[in-house]
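Hi, here's the filled form for the chain we discussed.

Project: internal
Contact: R.S.
Residues: 201
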Amino acid sequence: MNIKIVSVDLQKDFSAKGGKHYKARPAVQFIKGTLLPYLQKKKIKISEIISDYRREYNRKDNDTCVPGTWGYTSEIPAKNKNKNVWVKCQNSPIWVTKNIGDRTKKPSEPYQNPKAFTRWLEATTGKPEDVDLVVLVGLTLDCCVFCTAQELRFRRYKVRILKEATDTHAGTKQEKEMILTNYPLINWAKPITWKELQKIL
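And the returned structure, exactly as it came back:
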């Protein structure tokens, strides 16, 4: 099977102690300690979506994942991912700004660029008809991972969410189980376990 892995917002402002929105989320350690070594051994690259939230909160002291800062840094090593990384500015990956990801330039107001996102997606993962499954990992299940699942389904990809490799903003097991097994999320993507994924990789 042609299976692609896409990571969403696995950046230190969310994933590491000291990050502006850090909470203890088990998925982060699973990705770093289990998933990434396995994929590297299998020579499977990850397509990565990250965020530049300089305009998201409209307050300078609340800026998150600012290019050039520690909080913007991805947890996915270069050896594990495709070279071209998509940078978004809102929960949905189609929202961008001019100068996004460029720490030397001021970003514009957010705007939608679905065509550019489609081009990136097809270049890094393939066209929907050529991909059997896209598996999402990263943060957060109730926000950016959810919105990414929707956008991929709109483009006719078959999408699953790796259960062990994503968490909610709160990071609680109870909330995660509720979201993974109920609407609206399962309308767009159902969960897949690590054991199930290994069988088809």
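Let me know if anything looks off before we file it.
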